Amino acid sequence: MKFTFIHSLEELGTDLRVGVSLNNGKEIYYITGIDADNPDRLVPMSFTCSSGVAMGDLIGPVEHIDNIPDPKEIISSIEETYSEIKSLVLSVDSIDDPIDKVKIINTILLISERLFTSKVGSTENRNLLALPLIVEVISGIIKSGSKYNFKKSDKILASLKKYQKSLSYFAEEVMFYEKNSDPAIALSKIDWNKIPSFSYSGQTTLMLNSPYSEPKYVESFLPETFDDLISYLCSRYVQFSHFQCCSNCRRYFAFATDSKIKNCPRVIETARYSKDIGKTCFDVGRLRSHVRGLYSDETQVLYQRNYKATFARKKKGQVSEDHFAAWSEVARAMRDLCLAGEISYDELEKWFKDNYLRE
Ligand SMILES: [Zn+2]
Questions:
Q1: Residues 198-228: tens digit of each pLDDT
Q2: What is the 282 CA–ligand 1 centroid distance (Å)?
Q3: What CA–CA distance (Å, rounded) separates 46 from 4?
Q4: How far is the centre of ligand 1, averaged over its atoms, from the C-alpha of 245 (Å)?
Q5: Helix (H) or strand (E) holding 220
Q6: Rounded distance from Cα 57 to ligand 1 centre (Å)
Q7: What is the DSSP string of 16-37?
Q8: What confidence tens digit (pLDDT) does each residue in 15-61 have?
Protein backbone atom coordinates (compact mmCIF):
# COMPACT_ATOMS: atom_id res chain seq x y z
CA MET A 1 0.00 0.00 0.00
CA LYS A 2 1.15 3.55 -0.64
CA PHE A 3 1.13 6.60 1.54
CA THR A 4 -2.03 8.58 1.23
CA PHE A 5 -2.02 12.27 1.82
CA ILE A 6 -4.29 13.67 4.49
CA HIS A 7 -6.76 16.52 4.25
CA SER A 8 -7.38 17.09 7.95
CA LEU A 9 -5.88 16.10 11.29
CA GLU A 10 -9.12 14.31 12.20
CA GLU A 11 -8.20 11.61 9.68
CA LEU A 12 -5.20 10.67 11.86
CA GLY A 13 -6.50 11.31 15.36
CA THR A 14 -4.07 11.78 18.22
CA ASP A 15 -1.46 9.63 20.02
CA LEU A 16 -0.43 7.89 16.79
CA ARG A 17 1.22 4.53 17.04
CA VAL A 18 2.20 1.66 14.76
CA GLY A 19 0.39 -1.61 15.36
CA VAL A 20 1.10 -4.94 13.76
CA SER A 21 -0.84 -7.96 12.70
CA LEU A 22 0.83 -11.22 11.67
CA ASN A 23 -1.41 -13.35 9.58
CA ASN A 24 -1.06 -16.01 6.86
CA GLY A 25 2.54 -15.25 5.97
CA LYS A 26 1.85 -11.53 5.75
CA GLU A 27 2.60 -8.72 8.18
CA ILE A 28 0.40 -5.66 8.33
CA TYR A 29 1.88 -2.57 9.95
CA TYR A 30 -0.76 0.06 10.46
CA ILE A 31 -0.85 3.61 11.69
CA THR A 32 -3.49 4.11 14.31
CA GLY A 33 -4.68 7.11 16.32
CA ILE A 34 -7.32 8.01 18.88
CA ASP A 35 -10.48 9.67 17.62
CA ALA A 36 -12.10 12.08 20.08
CA ASP A 37 -15.67 11.03 19.21
CA ASN A 38 -15.17 7.34 18.65
CA PRO A 39 -14.25 4.56 21.07
CA ASP A 40 -12.40 2.62 18.35
CA ARG A 41 -8.98 3.66 17.21
CA LEU A 42 -8.67 5.07 13.70
CA VAL A 43 -6.55 3.24 11.12
CA PRO A 44 -5.75 5.86 8.49
CA MET A 45 -2.99 3.92 6.72
CA SER A 46 -1.65 0.40 6.60
CA PHE A 47 1.35 -1.22 4.99
CA THR A 48 2.19 -4.84 4.28
CA CYS A 49 5.16 -7.06 3.74
CA SER A 50 5.75 -10.79 3.81
CA SER A 51 6.58 -12.52 7.07
CA GLY A 52 9.96 -11.53 8.53
CA VAL A 53 10.78 -9.16 5.67
CA ALA A 54 10.64 -6.00 7.81
CA MET A 55 13.07 -7.49 10.33
CA GLY A 56 15.29 -8.89 7.55
CA ASP A 57 15.36 -5.47 5.87
CA LEU A 58 16.68 -3.83 9.04
CA ILE A 59 19.32 -6.53 9.56
CA GLY A 60 20.45 -6.27 5.93
CA PRO A 61 22.23 -8.86 3.78
CA VAL A 62 24.55 -11.29 5.60
CA GLU A 63 27.29 -10.71 3.01
CA HIS A 64 28.01 -8.02 0.44
CA ILE A 65 25.68 -8.28 -2.55
CA ASP A 66 25.89 -5.78 -5.42
CA ASN A 67 23.01 -3.31 -5.45
CA ILE A 68 21.64 -4.42 -2.07
CA PRO A 69 22.26 -1.87 0.71
CA ASP A 70 24.51 -3.29 3.42
CA PRO A 71 23.63 -2.87 7.13
CA LYS A 72 25.44 0.48 7.40
CA GLU A 73 23.76 1.86 4.30
CA ILE A 74 20.34 0.83 5.64
CA ILE A 75 20.86 2.85 8.82
CA SER A 76 22.23 5.82 6.88
CA SER A 77 19.25 5.87 4.51
CA ILE A 78 16.93 5.95 7.56
CA GLU A 79 19.10 8.63 9.19
CA GLU A 80 19.15 10.78 6.05
CA THR A 81 15.39 10.66 5.68
CA TYR A 82 14.92 11.43 9.37
CA SER A 83 17.33 14.36 9.40
CA GLU A 84 15.72 15.77 6.26
CA ILE A 85 12.37 15.68 8.09
CA LYS A 86 13.92 17.17 11.21
CA SER A 87 15.48 20.11 9.40
CA LEU A 88 12.26 20.69 7.49
CA VAL A 89 10.29 20.92 10.75
CA LEU A 90 12.93 23.14 12.38
CA SER A 91 13.04 25.46 9.35
CA VAL A 92 9.36 26.33 9.57
CA ASP A 93 8.49 29.32 11.78
CA SER A 94 5.23 28.08 13.09
CA ILE A 95 3.34 24.83 12.75
CA ASP A 96 0.67 25.53 15.27
CA ASP A 97 -2.50 25.83 13.32
CA PRO A 98 -4.14 22.74 11.82
CA ILE A 99 -3.66 23.82 8.19
CA ASP A 100 0.11 24.18 8.69
CA LYS A 101 0.22 20.85 10.48
CA VAL A 102 -1.58 19.09 7.62
CA LYS A 103 0.83 20.65 5.13
CA ILE A 104 3.96 19.62 7.00
CA ILE A 105 2.64 16.11 7.71
CA ASN A 106 1.98 15.61 3.99
CA THR A 107 5.52 16.75 3.22
CA ILE A 108 6.87 14.30 5.82
CA LEU A 109 4.83 11.51 4.21
CA LEU A 110 6.23 12.47 0.82
CA ILE A 111 9.84 12.49 2.06
CA SER A 112 9.42 9.15 3.87
CA GLU A 113 7.83 7.34 0.99
CA ARG A 114 11.20 6.39 -0.54
CA LEU A 115 12.08 4.37 2.58
CA PHE A 116 8.96 2.25 2.47
CA THR A 117 7.68 2.06 -1.06
CA SER A 118 9.27 0.01 -3.81
CA LYS A 119 10.54 1.90 -6.84
CA VAL A 120 9.15 -0.69 -9.20
CA GLY A 121 5.56 -0.58 -8.10
CA SER A 122 5.19 -3.60 -5.86
CA THR A 123 2.55 -4.08 -3.18
CA GLU A 124 5.28 -5.19 -0.77
CA ASN A 125 6.51 -2.42 1.49
CA ARG A 126 10.06 -2.38 2.79
CA ASN A 127 11.93 -1.13 5.88
CA LEU A 128 8.69 -1.18 7.87
CA LEU A 129 10.48 -1.30 11.23
CA ALA A 130 11.43 2.34 10.54
CA LEU A 131 7.76 3.29 10.30
CA PRO A 132 7.38 3.97 14.07
CA LEU A 133 10.18 6.58 13.78
CA ILE A 134 8.28 8.62 11.20
CA VAL A 135 4.92 8.10 12.93
CA GLU A 136 6.37 9.36 16.22
CA VAL A 137 7.42 12.63 14.54
CA ILE A 138 3.97 13.05 12.97
CA SER A 139 2.29 12.31 16.31
CA GLY A 140 4.56 14.83 18.05
CA ILE A 141 3.72 17.54 15.52
CA ILE A 142 0.00 16.92 15.95
CA LYS A 143 0.40 17.22 19.71
CA SER A 144 3.01 19.92 20.16
CA GLY A 145 3.40 21.70 16.80
CA SER A 146 6.67 23.61 16.52
CA LYS A 147 7.39 22.84 20.19
CA TYR A 148 8.01 19.18 19.36
CA ASN A 149 11.50 18.35 20.66
CA PHE A 150 12.30 15.08 18.81
CA LYS A 151 13.37 13.38 22.06
CA LYS A 152 11.20 10.33 21.57
CA SER A 153 12.00 10.02 17.86
CA ASP A 154 15.76 10.36 18.50
CA LYS A 155 15.38 7.49 20.93
CA ILE A 156 13.68 5.33 18.32
CA LEU A 157 16.48 6.06 15.84
CA ALA A 158 19.06 4.99 18.45
CA SER A 159 17.00 1.84 19.09
CA LEU A 160 16.94 0.97 15.38
CA LYS A 161 20.74 0.98 15.38
CA LYS A 162 20.92 -1.06 18.58
CA TYR A 163 18.39 -3.62 17.30
CA GLN A 164 20.17 -4.03 14.00
CA LYS A 165 22.93 -5.79 15.96
CA SER A 166 20.84 -7.82 18.38
CA LEU A 167 18.33 -8.86 15.72
CA SER A 168 21.11 -9.99 13.46
CA TYR A 169 22.37 -12.23 16.29
CA PHE A 170 18.80 -13.41 16.97
CA ALA A 171 18.25 -14.20 13.29
CA GLU A 172 21.44 -16.16 12.87
CA GLU A 173 21.76 -17.93 16.21
CA VAL A 174 18.11 -18.60 17.04
CA MET A 175 15.95 -18.42 13.95
CA PHE A 176 18.12 -19.48 11.00
CA TYR A 177 16.77 -22.87 9.97
CA GLU A 178 19.98 -24.17 8.48
CA LYS A 179 21.82 -23.59 11.75
CA ASN A 180 19.07 -24.48 14.22
CA SER A 181 16.04 -26.41 13.09
CA ASP A 182 14.41 -25.70 16.45
CA PRO A 183 14.52 -22.15 17.89
CA ALA A 184 13.63 -23.54 21.34
CA ILE A 185 16.79 -25.64 21.45
CA ALA A 186 18.86 -22.74 20.13
CA LEU A 187 17.50 -20.55 22.93
CA SER A 188 18.76 -22.98 25.54
CA LYS A 189 22.31 -22.50 24.28
CA ILE A 190 22.71 -18.78 23.69
CA ASP A 191 23.29 -15.71 25.83
CA TRP A 192 19.87 -14.04 26.22
CA ASN A 193 21.52 -10.67 26.86
CA LYS A 194 22.50 -10.60 23.21
CA ILE A 195 18.94 -10.84 21.88
CA PRO A 196 15.88 -8.60 22.37
CA SER A 197 13.67 -9.35 25.33
CA PHE A 198 10.56 -11.50 24.88
CA SER A 199 8.51 -9.41 27.33
CA TYR A 200 6.29 -6.71 25.98
CA SER A 201 3.52 -4.36 26.98
CA GLY A 202 0.67 -3.35 24.78
CA GLN A 203 -2.83 -4.16 23.75
CA THR A 204 -4.01 -7.13 21.76
CA THR A 205 -7.23 -6.62 19.89
CA LEU A 206 -9.13 -7.69 16.82
CA MET A 207 -8.84 -5.63 13.68
CA LEU A 208 -10.94 -5.79 10.57
CA ASN A 209 -8.62 -6.16 7.65
CA SER A 210 -8.77 -7.38 4.11
CA PRO A 211 -5.60 -6.54 2.23
CA TYR A 212 -5.50 -9.79 0.27
CA SER A 213 -8.81 -11.53 0.70
CA GLU A 214 -12.34 -11.21 2.02
CA PRO A 215 -12.70 -8.87 5.00
CA LYS A 216 -12.01 -10.70 8.24
CA TYR A 217 -11.04 -10.06 11.82
CA VAL A 218 -7.39 -10.63 12.58
CA GLU A 219 -5.53 -10.43 15.85
CA SER A 220 -3.49 -7.28 16.07
CA PHE A 221 -1.01 -5.93 18.57
CA LEU A 222 -0.63 -2.31 19.58
CA PRO A 223 2.70 -1.88 21.38
CA GLU A 224 3.33 0.66 24.13
CA THR A 225 6.80 1.50 22.83
CA PHE A 226 9.10 0.64 19.94
CA ASP A 227 10.87 -1.93 22.15
CA ASP A 228 7.54 -3.66 22.74
CA LEU A 229 7.02 -3.97 18.99
CA ILE A 230 10.41 -5.68 18.54
CA SER A 231 9.81 -7.99 21.54
CA TYR A 232 6.38 -8.95 20.25
CA LEU A 233 7.75 -9.82 16.79
CA CYS A 234 10.61 -11.88 18.24
CA SER A 235 8.33 -13.82 20.54
CA ARG A 236 5.92 -14.60 17.67
CA TYR A 237 8.75 -15.73 15.37
CA VAL A 238 10.19 -18.02 18.02
CA GLN A 239 6.82 -19.70 18.44
CA PHE A 240 5.60 -19.93 14.86
CA SER A 241 8.39 -19.48 12.34
CA HIS A 242 11.86 -20.20 11.07
CA PHE A 243 14.11 -17.83 9.18
CA GLN A 244 15.67 -18.51 5.84
CA CYS A 245 18.42 -16.43 4.25
CA CYS A 246 17.48 -15.68 0.63
CA SER A 247 19.88 -17.32 -1.82
CA ASN A 248 19.51 -14.32 -4.14
CA CYS A 249 19.66 -11.17 -1.97
CA ARG A 250 21.08 -12.82 1.20
CA ARG A 251 18.50 -11.16 3.48
CA TYR A 252 16.41 -13.00 6.04
CA PHE A 253 12.73 -13.76 5.75
CA ALA A 254 10.44 -15.93 7.84
CA PHE A 255 8.56 -19.03 6.78
CA ALA A 256 6.01 -21.22 8.48
CA THR A 257 7.32 -24.54 9.67
CA ASP A 258 5.99 -26.52 6.71
CA SER A 259 7.73 -24.78 3.82
CA LYS A 260 11.35 -24.81 2.71
CA ILE A 261 11.53 -21.98 0.20
CA LYS A 262 15.07 -20.73 -0.46
CA ASN A 263 14.21 -17.36 -1.99
CA CYS A 264 12.47 -14.40 -0.45
CA PRO A 265 9.43 -12.54 -1.78
CA ARG A 266 11.22 -9.18 -2.01
CA VAL A 267 11.01 -7.35 -5.29
CA ILE A 268 14.26 -6.82 -7.16
CA GLU A 269 14.79 -3.12 -7.83
CA THR A 270 18.26 -3.07 -9.27
CA ALA A 271 19.95 -6.08 -10.76
CA ARG A 272 22.75 -7.20 -13.02
CA TYR A 273 20.17 -8.25 -15.57
CA SER A 274 17.51 -5.67 -16.32
CA LYS A 275 15.07 -8.48 -17.13
CA ASP A 276 15.10 -9.40 -13.41
CA ILE A 277 13.94 -5.94 -12.23
CA GLY A 278 10.39 -5.99 -10.90
CA LYS A 279 10.45 -9.76 -10.37
CA THR A 280 10.79 -11.21 -6.90
CA CYS A 281 13.82 -13.13 -5.64
CA PHE A 282 11.44 -16.09 -5.45
CA ASP A 283 10.51 -15.82 -9.16
CA VAL A 284 14.12 -15.48 -10.23
CA GLY A 285 15.23 -18.39 -8.04
CA ARG A 286 12.51 -20.65 -9.39
CA LEU A 287 13.40 -19.74 -12.97
CA ARG A 288 17.10 -20.41 -12.41
CA SER A 289 16.52 -23.79 -10.81
CA HIS A 290 14.14 -24.68 -13.65
CA VAL A 291 16.75 -23.70 -16.23
CA ARG A 292 19.41 -25.60 -14.30
CA GLY A 293 17.26 -28.70 -14.25
CA LEU A 294 16.63 -28.54 -17.98
CA TYR A 295 20.18 -27.97 -19.09
CA SER A 296 22.55 -29.17 -16.42
CA ASP A 297 22.91 -32.73 -17.73
CA GLU A 298 23.23 -31.65 -21.36
CA THR A 299 25.76 -28.99 -20.35
CA GLN A 300 27.84 -31.51 -18.47
CA VAL A 301 27.77 -33.93 -21.44
CA LEU A 302 28.83 -31.18 -23.86
CA TYR A 303 31.69 -30.16 -21.59
CA GLN A 304 32.90 -33.74 -21.06
CA ARG A 305 32.75 -34.59 -24.74
CA ASN A 306 34.93 -31.59 -25.62
CA TYR A 307 37.24 -32.09 -22.68
CA LYS A 308 37.89 -35.77 -23.54
CA ALA A 309 38.49 -35.01 -27.20
CA THR A 310 40.98 -32.24 -26.39
CA PHE A 311 42.69 -34.35 -23.73
CA ALA A 312 43.09 -37.17 -26.30
CA ARG A 313 44.72 -34.78 -28.78
CA LYS A 314 47.09 -33.59 -26.07
CA LYS A 315 48.05 -37.24 -25.41
CA LYS A 316 48.84 -37.68 -29.07
CA GLY A 317 51.05 -34.60 -28.97
CA GLN A 318 48.71 -32.52 -31.15
CA VAL A 319 48.20 -29.97 -28.34
CA SER A 320 50.87 -28.70 -25.92
CA GLU A 321 50.63 -29.17 -22.17
CA ASP A 322 50.50 -25.39 -21.51
CA HIS A 323 47.81 -24.71 -24.06
CA PHE A 324 45.73 -27.54 -22.73
CA ALA A 325 46.02 -26.28 -19.14
CA ALA A 326 44.96 -22.76 -20.10
CA TRP A 327 42.13 -24.01 -22.31
CA SER A 328 40.72 -26.39 -19.72
CA GLU A 329 40.65 -23.68 -17.08
CA VAL A 330 38.55 -21.39 -19.28
CA ALA A 331 36.41 -24.33 -20.45
CA ARG A 332 35.53 -25.16 -16.84
CA ALA A 333 34.63 -21.55 -16.14
CA MET A 334 32.44 -21.42 -19.26
CA ARG A 335 30.67 -24.63 -18.19
CA ASP A 336 30.00 -23.13 -14.73
CA LEU A 337 28.56 -19.96 -16.28
CA CYS A 338 26.24 -22.13 -18.33
CA LEU A 339 25.22 -24.19 -15.28
CA ALA A 340 24.47 -20.93 -13.44
CA GLY A 341 22.20 -19.87 -16.29
CA GLU A 342 24.37 -16.90 -17.22
CA ILE A 343 25.15 -18.11 -20.75
CA SER A 344 23.02 -20.43 -22.85
CA TYR A 345 23.81 -23.97 -23.98
CA ASP A 346 24.15 -22.67 -27.57
CA GLU A 347 26.65 -20.04 -26.44
CA LEU A 348 28.72 -22.70 -24.68
CA GLU A 349 28.63 -24.92 -27.77
CA LYS A 350 29.76 -21.99 -29.93
CA TRP A 351 32.60 -21.29 -27.49
CA PHE A 352 33.88 -24.85 -27.86
CA LYS A 353 33.76 -24.51 -31.69
CA ASP A 354 35.50 -21.11 -31.69
CA ASN A 355 38.17 -22.30 -29.27
CA TYR A 356 39.04 -25.60 -30.88
CA LEU A 357 42.70 -26.14 -29.89
CA ARG A 358 45.28 -26.61 -32.65
CA GLU A 359 49.01 -25.91 -32.58
ZN1 LIG B 1 15.78 -12.10 -1.69
A1: 999 999 988 876 555 677 788 899 999 999 9
A2: 7
A3: 10
A4: 8
A5: strand 216-223
A6: 10
A7: EEEEEEEETTEEEEEEEEE-TT
A8: 999 999 998 889 999 999 999 888 778 888 999 999 999 999 999 99
